[in-house]
Amino acid sequence: MPKVDARRIRDLFDTQVRRSTASDGLSDVFSSPGIVRWSSTSDVGWSDISWTNLDVESADEAIRQQIEFFSALGKKFVWRVYEYDAPPDMRTRLERQGFTNTGVSHLMIARVQDLMNTVELPDGVSLVRANDERGIGWLIEVQEKVFRSDQSDLRRSLLAQFALSPLLNEVVVAVVDGQPVSSARVQFLPNTEFAGLWGGGTLPRWRRKGIYSAMVAHRAEVSAERGYNYLYVIASHQSQPILEHLAFGSYGSVSTFSWDPPNPSS
């Protein structure tokens, strides 16, 4: 296996994914030398800061500008800080200006060619390419059971995305006796070498049976068909060791900070 140039792949990820301005149709994208910002156009889409090029002199003012922008719109947004982002104290600066740290994940990247493996599924389990309203419903059903949280915003956004750009996502569901037991999706970023894996979740009784690995391999195969070279995941602590076993490399932590507009009545 050829040696992976980790720095080159990380730089490709930053350039092609974090700095991408190819809108999904649900968000407006603003790009400057110091920041790339996504802002949802309605009650669907995502609002976040996807990339920054800041230093100790510019960071606090950049944070204030984004707060002012989203405050005027009355929208919440998130700011992801990658381990290698500058300045080093960016997390502290965000918290000082009212952001809430909602958790730490890991950036994982693998070459698609290294994931093209055949994984045997348990008896009675089949993978279904479910790129329709029913498939989205299955995906959301599993996600809500696994993560015990309301996923209605994601449902609306995915339905809107499929209506606008039906080839942007592929939903895969593991089904047993006509019922979903695991679900995930892959998002194909236009004009890049990267596809993103999102939302992998499996009901407890079906874990440790190879379903997660099979779904990763399936999405790698679909990505290869589309001509993509890399898959990336913003992975939880639970997913990280599984992905490492499947040939994903770790490219550092990703801290997610959320900001909510003040309540007008408060």
Task: Spell out the blueprint of helices and strands.
Elements: H1 6-18, E1 27-31, E2 35-40, E3 48-52, H2 59-73, E4 77-82, H3 90-96, E5 100-111, E6 125-129, H4 133-147, H5 152-164, E7 169-176, E8 179-188, E9 194-202, H6 211-226, E10 230-235, H7 239-245, E11 249-259
Parallel strand pairs: 3-4, 9-10
Antiparallel strand pairs: 1-2, 2-3, 4-11, 5-10, 5-11, 6-7, 7-8, 8-9
Can you put this structure into words, describing what you see?
- With 266 residues, the chain is an alpha+beta fold.
- The radius of gyration is 19 Å and the shape is globular.
- It has an eleven-stranded mixed β-sheet with strand order 1-2-3-4-11-5-10-9-8-7-6, with helices on both faces.
- A hairpin with a 5-residue loop joins β8 (179-188) and β9.
- It has two domains: 6-105 and 253-259, Aminopeptidase (3-Layer(aba) Sandwich); 111-252, Gcn5-related N-acetyltransferase (GNAT) (Aminopeptidase, 3-Layer(aba) Sandwich).
- The chain starts with 5 loop residues before the first helix and ends in a 7-residue tail after the last strand.
- It has helices spanning 6-18, 59-73, 90-96, 133-147, 152-164, 211-226, 239-245; strands spanning 27-31, 35-40, 48-52, 77-82, 100-111, 125-129, 169-176, 179-188, 194-202, 230-235, 249-259.
